Sequence to fold (725 residues):
Amino acid sequence: MYVYDAFDRTLVAERVAEFRDQVARRLSGELTEEEFKPLRLMNGVYLQLHAYMLRIAIPYGTLSSAQLRKLAYVARKYDRGYGHFTTRQNLQFHWIKLEELPDAMGALAEAGMHGMQTSGNCVRNITTDQWAGVAPDELEDPRTWAELIRQHVTLHPEFSFMPRKFKIAVGASHHDRAALRIHDLGLRLHRNGAGESGFEVMVGGGLGRTPFLAKTIKPFLPKRDVLSYVEAVLRTYNQFGRRDNIYKARIKILVHELGAEAFAKEVEAEWQSIKDGALALDPAAVSEIAGRFVYPDYERLDDGPPELAQARRADARFAAWMGNAVDNHKVPGYAIVTLSLKPEGGTPGDATAAQMDAIADLADRYSFGEVRVGHEQNLTLPHVAQRDLPDLWRALDAIGVATPNVGLVSDIIACPGLDYCSLANARSIPIAQEITRRFSKLDLQRDLGRLHINISGCINACGHHHVGHIGILGVEKNGEEFYQITLGGKADSDAKLGALVGPAVPYAKVADVVEDIAAAYLELRERPDELFIDTVKRIGVEPFRERVYAAR
Amino acid sequence: MPLVENGRIVEDRYVRILDDAPIPDRLPVIVPANRLLADAHELVRRDGSLGVLWPNDRRVAELEPWLGHLALIALVFPKFRDGRAYSQARLLRETYGFRGTLRATGDVLRDQFHFLVRAGFDSFEVKKPADARVFAEVLGRYSVYYQPGADGQAPALRRRLRGGAAPKVRETV
Fold:
């Protein structure tokens, strides 16, 4: 858990005061909507179909129970009693009134939360592995670096009006759980041949209408230089990124048009001139930030306590959940528990105020008061003693967040789509809901194994459809909702963009096609343990096309 | 369009010169970029302060040979959300060591003031008179920054390491 000090709290409070003034000027007509727009966006405020939406940053997905309770409070008082967790570890409220926004932000600020830079053409919320600090396979806690960068780019005097938004992710594990290659800038902590740790720097990834995977422009960057190098990348982008066309304004287009090598050269020259200046990090600065990530006072426990084995034998539902939602922790006797926000027929990523309060209480009792938000739109309790798992499961089951479908076909990632979003061409949520109903039988889901479905309601790709094992993209054709379906995408360390499997299908047929794809996989896989994604990789999309589209 | 310097609304001493217009003697002038590059040798020998209006899509490195002769560089914000001139300002100040006046022109609103000051600007052609009047007040909005800036304020990280007293959280009004 990162502990805010008076500096952080002051800055957030001053930000709320500034926004209060901006809202007052907008309401009085002193600011036009065009002038107000970039200001509200930089505070996470969008104008959507029905109301203003407020997006709240959850830096590196770490929340305290007190913060989660505050989110529940805001959901009740200013929204309609629920919130929506997004694919970028943020939370969105979709029904907030402009006049009440400053008060809602004031309430959040009391718990050290804000919407700063969750939108607008600035550096967005820095994301990282939601298991940071507890994953057995990490080199070190990447959040120290995420926090150093977050602080550096907050209200940055040079990079608050860039050509377009800029998303940074930091990872430090063997398994990439932060989707580094689909970010504008990905930083992967690793060791070089000499045993020193530093960053692999990747730039120019992104989805949207022109998807690209990020290219490595520096295989090894010493840690002390991370801020100056980020600064050099941003400076190069701010000056030379395209501003003539919003669809070509992301850094991925600049990197593509210049070529990764020429881009890297430009950055290198800039970096050389600033690397030994004020941004070079000394160990004291790094340990100051690292020291404010407080780790729980773990008990000395052994893995696999006897009561756990007993509970598994006694209750098949518990055993199924444990096999699905519980992962290894780096401390013996503890576990990482994922809470599924994907119940059958539900809206992916939604949590009610009552659920948030209950989860906050469970976090206090079982997880040292800490909760994580992952890009798959689920929550995590990161520090659960294994002996507590049966009790915790009963409590989670009672509030509807223990569906054992984590990583399975009904654990769908979806954007809000046309139900909320003014950019969308098509609905996402009802498509997700219908698919979860088609695959309601857990035995079938388990047989299908790991299978990620990602749904976006428009080309902006907030649902990351390009990197879904099955990707579904809503488009508009002659006033009707149609959906393009891709197979084989993935966002892990071996990231890949999906390939189109056939012509777009109408709204009413999407779930049928997904069912047919699943059936084709069961037929085409070599062995029961060949994952869907591996089958697609081995044989390509053609055999799927034949089976799914032959009869259509 | 009011001009703000040192926190106050002031008269503009400079005269803007168009591309082919004759240049008056002794008066401080701001010439377009092309004019500067074309007539630089004459212009720098002239009596009177010399300024240049530099577009935001041109590298400031081109100005390097003339920086010692320039009293003012005016950078441009064609739109509030076009922030290229922030990078130009920092490069001029920090990489090329320009010590003259850096003026922000164009779509300059109160919500940019602290960004502009911290990027190195010290002269502001403010679009709305109401914004110009509250310049000093608006600059006081923030007492904490996370990164070093041209205003010389130490970033929060350095203040923490020095064990400096944290500012009091003010009531939001």
